[in-house]
Design brief:
With 170 residues, the protein is an alpha/beta fold. The protein has three helices and eight strands.
């Protein structure tokens, strides 16, 4: 039963994500906020339309509450094993139960980062720290710009950055 149940759950998540992303992509395409796939005319087998980043989590409901507060958005889809946020950029963040994912995950949380570009890095850091969000790296200047890193309930890294100003070439 366990294998069949996991397969059915996996198919449900796939169908849910596919239908939600199709609605999101159609909406953003009509407003012009999503990038056009120029690779579609390329004869090579390539893709450049990243639509969804999935984080494997221990408790999708707990993670959905965290990201609801962090993003200021309600999930576009939510079930006991999956939640998805449709971002205004046209991309999505999925939160999928690691216990139901097939194949099982090989990497530990924190092996990748979600990165958000924001102008007010220090203000956002202060607000998140005041709310008790775990901070892995305080605001600092790096070669690419001003940044800090927070951690979600599963230890996934959430980086906020402001690019460094372009240097003048004259």
């Amino acid at each position: 039963r366990g294998g069949t149940y996991t397969y059915i759950q996996t198919q449900y998540v796939y169908v849910t994500v596919s239908s939600t992303l199709e609605r999101v992509m159609n909406a953003t395409a009509s407003t012009g906020t999503a990038a056009t796939n120029t690779a579609a005319t390329n004869t090579a087998a390539t893709t450049s339309n990243l639509a969804l980043t999935i984080l494997l989590v221990a408790d999708p409901a707990r993670s959905a509450a965290f990201y609801r507060d962090l993003l200021g958005l309600e999930p576009a889809e939510q079930s006991p094993i999956f939640a998805m946020f449709a971002l205004p950029s046209g991309a999505g963040i999925g939160l999928w139960s690691a216990a139901t994912t097939a194949p099982p995950p090989a990497a530990a949380p924190g092996a990748a980062e979600l990165c958000f570009r924001e102008d007010e890095v220090d203000r956002l850091h202060a607000a998140w720290a005041a709310r008790g969000i775990r901070i892995a790296q305080a605001p600092t200047d790096m070669d690419f710009g001003r940044t800090f890193v927070a951690l979600d309930p599963d230890g996934h890294r959430v980086r906020v950055f402001r690019p460094a100003p372009e240097e003048s070439t004259s």
